Amino acid sequence: MASLAALTSLKVSRHQIPRYGLIPNTSIQNKPLLIYHQVFDPQNITPSLIEAHIRSVGSCEPQWRYPMYRTTHFHSTTHELLVVFRGDALLLFGGEGNPGRVEIKARKGDAILIPAGVAHKLVEESPGGFEMVGSYPRGAASWDMCYGAEGEDVDDTIRGVEWFHKDPLFGQTGPAVDAGEARVD
């Protein structure tokens, strides 16, 4: 089993990102984009250990290993948990041109919890490559691909996406539980 950084010493960045054009970002549910910096020890982490840990918590189900798409996109049907297991990359959240966008350098060992509606894309990856484990809440609708295009009527769908009952990495307590009106099971 993978060991996590202690909650008391974990650095977590929380970002509210305003709507930008047809990209809702955090404007609907008001749940922040959460970045768990170095939540996993980058020296001792593998994709299999990450997946086993996520499954053991039981909130999310790992579904893929891949970098992030280079096209701005978001999901209206589910939140998304990403954990970096190889390399580092510059990631953009909120949409190009959005004055409220967030750009981060994601590193091996970081986890990112992306609320439904928040646009994201890979800007640049390290020369050695960049990969993540992608997970979605158990029982959630299958993920969709939205691009902030005309005809994507997603606000009501996003409103209906349930927030986490427990943190997908820490369980009964943690940044996702602290992010709002989540209840503890």
TrEMBL record:
Source taxonomy: Eukaryota, Fungi, Dikarya, Basidiomycota, Agaricomycotina
Single annotated GO MF: DNA binding
SUPFAM superfamilies (UniProt xref): RmlC-like cupins
Record carries keyword Chloroplast: no
Keywords assigned by UniProt, alphabetized: DNA-binding
Organism: Meripilus lineatus
Keyword DNA-binding belongs to the record: yes
Name of the molecule in the record: AraC-type arabinose-binding/dimerisation domain-containing protein
AraC-type arabinose-binding/dimerisation domain segment(s): 62-146
